[in-house]
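Lab manual, section 2.4: Encoding a predicted structure.

Procedure: take the sequence of the chain (163 residues), apply the prediction step described in section 2.3, and record the output as structure tokens. A sample record is shown.
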Amino acid sequence: MKDRELLEAILQKIGGIEFRMNSMESKLTSMESKMTGMESKMESMESRMTGMESKMTGMESKMTGMESKMTGMESKITGMESRMTGMESKITGMESRMENMEGELVEVKAEVKFTKEAVIKMESDHGQKLGALFDGHKLNSEKLDKIENEVTKHEEIILRRIR
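Recorded output:
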């Protein structure tokens, strides 16, 4: 091979290498722009992640607040349950007292009925006795009237004789 041919072969190879170099440069430029785009996307994602982390922290604090409120509500419910238990026992006591009062009321009604019957019997007996007394009084009045009339007659007779 001659020098010229050798030079042409080297030039061809250098041309091929240049072509490859240019191609690699464009690929590197393209990769650099893609990397720049990816870097900006990564920065955007980092800022989003930071925002998400702050939101999560806020949510955690809200959850803690809700947990404490729930604990407070649970203690209030426990208090209400104990009050309800107390009220139930009071109601049970009142029910037993009502049952006792109902029993006593039955006894009082029986006593009132007995007393009423006794009063009715006494009124009937007394009514008959009063009727007999009034009849006796009437008889006595009539006898007294007769005696008075007789006394008046005798008085008149005595007064006529005296005159």
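Check your result against the sample. The radius of gyration is 66 Å.
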